[in-house]
Amino acid sequence: MREWWKDGVIYQIYPRSFQDTTGTGVGDLKGIESRLDYLERLGIDAIWISPIFPSPMKDAGYDVSDYTGIDPTFGTLEDFESLTAAAHARGMKVLLDFVPSHTSDQHPWFQEARASKDSPKRDWYVWRDPGPDGGPPTNWISEFAGPAWTLDEATGQYYLHIFLTEQPSLNWRNPELRAAMYDVMRVWFDRGVDGFRVDAVENMAPDPEAGDNPPNPEWVESMGPARSHLGTNTKHLPVIFEIAREMRAVAEEYDPPRLLVGEAYGEIPQVMKYYGDALDAFQQPFNFLLIEAPWEAETLAGLIADYEAALPEGAWPNWVLGNHDRARIASRVGPAQARNAMLMLLTLRGTPTIYQGDELGMENVAIPPDRVQDPWEKNVPGQGLGRDPVRTPIAWEEAPFGGFSTVEPWLPMDLGAARIVARQEEDEASMLAFTRALLALRKETPALTRGSLEEVRAEGAVLRYTRRLGETRLEVALNTGTTPAEIDLAGALLVSTHPGAEAGGPLRPGEGRVTRAG
Ligand code: BGC
Fold first, then answer.
1. What fold characterizes domain 108-160?
2. Residue-wise over 118-138: b if at least 16 C-beta within 10 A, else e?
């Protein structure tokens, strides 16, 4: 049987910013449940919810202190069960975020590990004696700036944290730790969760024995401190692929097998390794090519072709335009190209993931210094590394705080009329209406889900490709440029970024069309 996720569309919910029902200024699980109608009407097939587990929230929930509970900010386990049942009743799958590379320093495992050098859990984390000069054991730099090692005064050893000091790295070379984490996966699968997005997998197994990382010859300051060195001894190490295969084996204990979507940023060949040599690791290693690519037809055509060519035999592709860590697509490519970006996401071959709010054309929101939440921004202020601008709440209605909350939300929000869901609902020409139309077209057009991808090319500023299934041939053309483009586009118009457009005639700047040519 064909797996649901091959034809499905995943929608990422950033729960802190979706819908607050408890007057805390932070979204919650009941809020998500109350908006399932919206998601059903949108036409997505699965929701992936960023972390909802108990957490001191030093990194917005990516610092987990109990892998199997629910943080009171978001509600209770009953709320989660209710949400899952309600989503399933609508035919929607539920994916959670699994954060295996590190815990919170408040996790009982770490508390136990740091209690003494002889603790049975000591080796569940990565400890080393100080280097020869008494400083950190290696020159590794935390993703959020500063050394990746912190001295534990009481025991005289350093512990590793690829992210914050409060996010100690787990030691996946320890078999007991592995078993405990696989049990965590089973707890959620037994509760009916359909899969996980697996966080920061490339950082799961740094090798302190291999020593310092070499400097990055291409580094410029705007890349942030962590990129000043290469990840030679910290990222994508071979043992990770073995772990990914073991995680997959856990997912395969269930019927149907649960979905694992791995988050690994890397070059194309590196990312492909996460499928596993026998397609026995992650079913979907995230493809982040479009999240950084310059918005330029020639480059996009090249990236799409390179990715398709690199896919192992039988591997299923996927595409992502944005997430809670990266600039909003509408800000990155400009509002005039936001529809084209959505058109591309939903017509390329493979499983798309939509980041909440991108269906509304949400843009980065400027955050005043006194409202900053992201620890990265706090550590390296003013360099544009902070992620708060892309995490702001959704404005649902023309109401105080956009109907998101009854109190000032945890982050400032864009209350501009154009962004408000209720306004877009009433407007047939809105970004929301366009996204819905695309999702509906995808659903009723097997060539868009199952068809081949052919003739990917740039014609000047126009990106073009063909989707073909049996006799059906769809032509996709999108003008990434700022001037009208004459193109030869055959067939009947199925959808356009511009309401009222016709199949023929030049493509306006930012205009994209899908036609049925056969
Ligand atoms: C998540 C980030 C998080 C980091 C540490 C990532 O890749 O997406 O939001 O800060 O992992 O868990």
1. Oligo-1,6-glucosidase; domain 2 (3.90.400)
2. ebebbebbbbeeeeeeeebbb
